[in-house]
Amino acid sequence: MKAMILAAGRGERMRPLSDAVPKPLLPAAGRPLIEYLIESLARANYRDLVVNHSYLGAAVEQTLGDGSRYGVRIRYSPESEGALGTGGAIERALPLLGDAFVVVNGDVWTDYPFERLTPPPDLAHLILIDNPAHHPQGDFALERGRVLDHGEPRLTFAGIGVYRAALFSGCAPGRFPLAPLLRQAIRQGRASGEHYRGCWLDVGTPQRLRQLEELLDKRRD
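^ thats the sequence. predicted structure below, dont judge the formating
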């Protein structure tokens, strides 16, 4: 399978840090945030990656290049200023991704073992985590490996999923979110999932970026 890293967000919550540097390139312990994801995927034998970009996208391509120094091949899916949202970004990149593919939010740091992911028999397979402090209400429930729109306990979508291209069938090109497509697949009983209890951090604010740096410092000790 190929993997896509969503890296086109403006990073409003990261301002002013993201005013001159695109959020995926913000340094965490001296390295661009997106590099940690690329290297995790490379260790899991993902060799073909797609990275979308919009705001300051040229800097993303200049920094990452063709991916060879990470042991991968990176192809880019550029978007106009304002970006396409998560759903529109994936739909635009479908010609680069194939029938089944992994998608990861570019502002996530995790030790999730990407090698365990396989093409799902359903339209989607979602990684869910315990609700973080900034999202206590959660997103979905999980019962015997099936993702449910309702139920308890609630878990949070980790921004990591495996999707079939058919999830986007009938979608017109343009800006739209991913969440409604996921909820439709869930209502149809066509979304599986798993509860990951390892390390995961949404690096969406300067405070959480500092938390990541503290975590990385501890891991080096």
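The mean pLDDT is 93.
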